Amino acid sequence: MLGNEKKTALSPDEVLGVIKTLESATTVGDLLTGAAKALGVKVSLYQHFTAVGAFDFNTYGNFHPYKVPEEILEFYSQDNKYDRDPVIVAAFAKGRSIWLSDTINEPYVKEVKHEAMINWTLKKVGDGLCCPLYGPDNRRGYAFVGFGRDKTEFAPIMPYQIQTLVQLMHVRYCKMIKSLQRQIKFTRRETEVLELMSFGKTNAEIATVLKISKSTVDGYVKNIFLKLETTDRVSAAMRAQTLQLKT
Fold first, then answer.
1. In Å, how far are 44, 65, 198 from 72, measured between CA atoms?
2. Would you place residue 197 in the very low, low, confident or very high pLDDT band (cuts 50, 70, 90)?
3. Superfamily assignment of 12-180 in CATH?
4. Are 94 and 39 in contact (CB under 8 A)?
5. For 145-167, what is each residue's pLDDT tens digit?
6. Of the candidates 157, 126, 158, 156, which has an alpha carbon nearest to the alpha carbon of residue 144?
7. Which residue numbers delimit the HTH luxR-type domain (predicted)?
8. What does pTM read for this prediction?
């Protein structure tokens, strides 16, 4: 679609067509590849950041490239931290899509002197939209969508169309991932302990509220940490909220 040099924006029917493609996808691969093909992108990447409370929250998370040059893949394949890419920071600062070429003027990009890297990327893949994505359970993501064309060739409505569609894709991805997650089962008492932990109660205070011994509470807390694969109370509460665990 938008890879066609005569197209400046998507028609209502084309928008609906992309939405149907997203909704009909049954696998993560079909979802991501289908979205790229339906939009007619030349190059794109999608990143799903790990949920708040997970051990690897600060890393890039799941990275899904589509026709991305090897040189750029090498950068993202490193063990980088989330805040290392100033373009992503700039996109989230805006709270909406921003053209890659426009990120050069963003304060943080200038502060960390990232302009050269952006210019290098523009030469490799051309301009594109950098889209911050927001999903359920505090799951964020990021997408770069490029069409091999200059931004001046598109209608003003086009960036908003792309932001909306990749946002829908991100939510769909989050739901797919959630359905695949291992469900952790808590006992009724463990649930009560975890709830009181989330309110900042100490083990001694929890023992008083539940009218059980502190050593018994200690055992419940240990089981909770093991099930959630964490070692502190804050992370345990955040992970439980993120995973929406059942009892």
1. 11, 10, 41
2. confident
3. Transcription factor LuxR-like, autoinducer-binding domain (3.30.450.80)
4. no
5. 999 899 999 999 999 999 999 99
6. 126
7. 179-244
8. 0.71
State phi, psi for 183 to the nearest 5 degrees. Answer: -80, 130
DSSP state of 246: B
DSSP secondary structure letter of residue 128: E
Q: Find the helix or strand (DSSP H, E) in which 133 lies.
A: strand 128-134
Length of the chain: 247
Say if residue 82's pLDDT is above 50: no
State how far the Cα of 117 lies from the Cα of 50, in Å rounded to an integer.
25
Residue 121's nearest CA partner among 66, 69, 162 is 69
Query: Tell me: domain 188-243, CATH 3.40.50.2300, correct?
Result: no
Give kind and range of the element (H or E) at residue 81. none
Contact 128, 99 (CB under 8 A): yes
CA separation for the pair 17, 57 (Å, rounded): 34
Residues 6+ apart with CB under 8 A from 217: 193, 203, 204, 206, 207, 210
The answer on pLDDT for 1 being more than 70 is yes
What is the enclosing helix (H) or strand (E) of 208? helix 203-210
